[in-house]
Amino acid sequence: MANRDNLALAGRKVLWMSLPRARHLGPLFIVWGVSICVLVLQKDLGSSVLLFGLFVVVLYVATDRPSWLLIGAALFLPAAWFAATHLHHVQQRINGWLHATDNAVYNAAGGSWQLLTGMFGMSTGGLMGAGWGKGSPTLVTFANSDFIFASLGEELGLTGTLAILMLYLVLIQRGLRTAVSLRDGFGKLLAVGLSFAIALQIFVVIGGVTRLIPLTGLTLPFLAYGGSSLLANWVILALLLRLSDAARRPATHAPRIIDTAELPVSLRRRVQDAGADEPAEETVGSSPSQAASPASAGYVDDQRAGQPEAGGYGPPSAAPGNPTNDATPTVFVSQEAPPPPHTAPDGETLRSSRAPGFSDDSDRRQQP
Predict the structure, then answer these.
(1) Fewer CB within a 10 Å sphere, N or C end of the chain?
(2) In b/e form, how buried is each residue of 323-336, taking b as 16+ CB within 10 angstroms?
């Protein structure tokens, strides 16, 4: 009994730790409010669902927190209940979905007549369809836009509609595969968002025509008639092609900094031996007679007082016979110091980023 209570307590702690902070819920509430305004003012159920669903999915992919999906569902369900009970156009679509075969709903204005006519057309097509141009899609209103899938189902049959769905599935799969292959975070989120936008449109439209879910105002990508919708879907496809091209290109630029401390011991010794043969560079700010040795070229101590650091860099000391000048930086490198800089074949400099005096603001790409 005690173990069961401990497991339940641990589960509640894990769930609480995975929840986002309250200040991070602001953008989600803003998008939720915008989608509600689109639903109430524009009377567009499909665009409202697409906007809010796309935002929640991108949040989940970006943060890898399933709690965003739970919060999105918690916000969607009360809004759906309010729309179903208080908005007349949403009530008509839900009644036509639930009671499509009732005579009162079938003959009512905005009832289920269009939905049942499209389903009768798809059933007439059968397995192989009636053939191109041999159906009667004009019997269904909006057969070239909202009910284009029913028209294709009548002429192409179940085989043709499954082929169309497979093409859509390949397009969505390639978009998600592109998101996985990309190397930058913004490209990944963009590819996932664009792929999900197409997938959600397909699910909402085909689900509404086949009476799986209530009808909405979205159009089927690349098939349904519509100027702005068709243009937006072609823009989405163009962006996915550009992202796919970027994902397939190999990395052509070598890294500017190669940290020799991360290299294996044998390779690090080879770099040290190769760098020892390079001519010595003069220390910046020193006189020509105070040229730095090959083992200490380019490395200047940070001139901090105290004990030597863990990396082996001690405080500055004066060489015998050369008194230390306070105005001139003193070069000091211990025996355990990183290897000197060495010019790679591509013109870049191999240099350890852990060397003292080297900062992120300095020029990391040094020419020989």
Answers:
(1) N
(2) eeeeeebbbbbeee
With the C-alpha atoms ordered 126, 132, 135, 141, is the resulting torsion angle positive or negative?
positive
| Spatial contact of 304 and 270, defined as CB atoms under 8 Å apart | no
Q: Is the pLDDT of residue 284 over 70?
A: no
**What is each CA distance from 80 to 32, 85, 94, 111, in whole angstroms?**
12, 9, 11, 20
The predicted-structure confidence for 164-173, as pLDDT tens digits, reads as follows 999 999 999 9
Give the angle subtended at the CA of 37 by the CAs of 109 and 145, to the nearest 5°: 45
Tokens read off for 347: 């013109």
Looking at this protein, which amino acid is placed at residue 322? Answer: N
- Pair of tokens at residue 331: 């070069």
d(CA 8, CA 218) in angstroms, rounded, equals 44
Residue 252: pLDDT over 90: no
Contact 54, 193 (CB under 8 A): yes
The pLDDT mean for the chain works out to: 74
Q: Helix count (H) and strand count (E) of the chain?
A: 11, 2
Whole-prediction pTM: 0.62
φ/ψ of residue 31, rounded to 5:
-65, -35
Q: How far apart are CA 116 and CA 111, in angstroms?
A: 10
Using CA atoms, how far residue 193 sits from 120, 138, 170, 188, 244, in Å, is 35, 35, 16, 9, 14
Q: What is the mean pLDDT of residues 288-303?
A: 43
What distance in Å separates the CA atoms of residue 325 and residue 284, rounded to the nearest whole number? 14
CA 368 to CA 354: how far, in whole Å? 20
d(CA 74, CA 356): 54
What tokens does 83 get?
Answer: 């729309």
**Could you say which DSSP state residue 339 is in?**
P
For 356, the 3-state DSSP assignment is coil
The residue among 151, 116, 145 whose CA lies nearest residue 130 is: 151
User: How long, in residues, is the chain?
Assistant: 368
Give the Cα separation of 328 and 289 in Å (integer). 13
Chain segment 73-127, per-residue pLDDT in tens: 999 988 888 888 888 888 888 888 888 888 888 888 777 888 888 888 888 888 8
